[in-house]
Design brief:
With 272 residues, the chain is mostly helical. It has eleven helices and no strands. Helix 4 packs antiparallel against helix 9.
């Protein structure tokens, strides 16, 4: 006769009965989700009525218009320039902020708290809000978009750069400190070289993020191909919009492929 314990070990895993607290939490979540469905105004009827309109718009997108190909291509280039310049300048500003925010490098806990709060503020305010702020401040055009990318990159990179610096081996920094090295020497010679691979990886992710964001920023007047897309949709030129979407797809895919290849080379270099 088979051992009951041995048979139980071969049975498939089953869900455990939830505790009263977990059951109450799940019921609370379910109730909030149902309430959120009402707030989101989910309507199957409106969706079904909108399907013919979707089909009409899709049919007017084919074939994509090429009459403004060169101006669109120039706008795509401006979009990439905004993303590149914004990312590079944002990374430059992020490094000293990360040093002040890193637990093992900050000169005082209060400085760390203030800098981390500032970086969190940059990160939590949405891109579109920053774009509207800069469009009102400096006017329409790519400069407003570039400023938005800079602020967004600082909010993203400064946080992760600080974590990269905190995760480095403390040995070299302690050795430099023991021989009387200055704080700036410890950062430059002991911490940054060790954190550089992770920081490079973070920078590549920031560049991908900036390219996608710079497309959307154009919709609120911050320049680039997004402005062309907004005008095409307002003029009901869906064939032009289709061409713009295809160009955006090629741009984003190219940056992602480049970023992925660079990260693979970086990983191979670390393993080698």
């Amino acid at each position: 006769m088979a051992d009951p314990k041995s048979m139980a070990a071969h049975l498939p895993v089953r869900f455990d009965a939830p505790s009263p607290v977990r059951a109450a939490a799940f019921a609370l979540f379910l109730g909030f989700f149902m309430w959120s469905l009402v707030g989101a105004e989910i309507s199957i009827n409106d969706l079904l009525m909108g399907i013919p309109n979707m089909g009409q718009i899709a049919s007017e997108m084919v074939p994509p218009a090429t009459d403004r190909f060169m101006p669109m291509l120039k706008s795509v280039l401006v979009t990439f320039q905004m993303a590149l310049v914004g990312t590079v300048i944002g990374v430059i500003f992020s490094i000293p902020l990360a040093v002040l925010a890193a637990r093992n490098l900050t000169p005082h806990p209060w400085v760390q708290t203030v800098v981390r709060g500032l970086v969190s503020f940059f990160r939590t305010v949405p891109d579109l809000a920053w774009a509207l702020f800069f469009v009102v401040s400096v006017g329409l055009g790519p400069f407003a978009g570039t400023l938005t990318i800079i602020v967004d990159t600082i909010g993203f990179c400064a946080r992760f750069f600080a974590e990269n610096m905190e995760e480095t081996d403390p040995g070299p920094a302690e050795a430099l400190s023991a021989i009387g090295a200055r704080r700036i020497d410890i950062v430059v010679c002991g911490v940054l070289p060790a954190a550089l691979p992770a920081m490079t990886n973070t920078t590549l992710f920031a560049l991908e993020k900036a390219v996608r964001s710079s497309v959307v920023l154009g919709l609120v007047g911050a320049g680039g191909i997004g402005a062309e897309l907004a005008v095409s949709m307002e003029m009901f030129r869906y064939d032009q919009a289709a061409m713009i979407v295809m160009m955006i797809f090629v741009l984003v895919l190219s940056v992602e492929r480049f970023s992925s290849a660079a990260r693979n080379r970086l990983i191979e270099g670390q393993e080698g």
